[in-house]
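Batch manifest, entry 17 of 40.
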Amino acid sequence: MVEWECLLSGGSYEELVEAGEPRLVAGQDDDGCVVFAVSPRLSAVLAGAERSELEDAAVAWSLQRAEDGEVIGTETAIVILGDLAAFVGSARRRGRNVCCWVA
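Output type: structure tokens
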């Protein structure tokens, strides 16, 4: 989530930490999972992003992950961000927040 927010909003990791993001909703349990709230800023950016912006961010994210040895194909990254943007947009229209479960 932090990578996406930095890519889409142009902010830095340090700025997010100073703003208290990402906000932990549920701590690590026995299986090592945590739940974070999608920040209001990321939520707004995702909901309002044009397809081209999402595609650019997905390509950059795919390249960043590859640098760390994690292969996420560009097309897969585009689908993930596109689906997430649609989900967040739907949640925002209903006045809901979105959380992200990380294993």
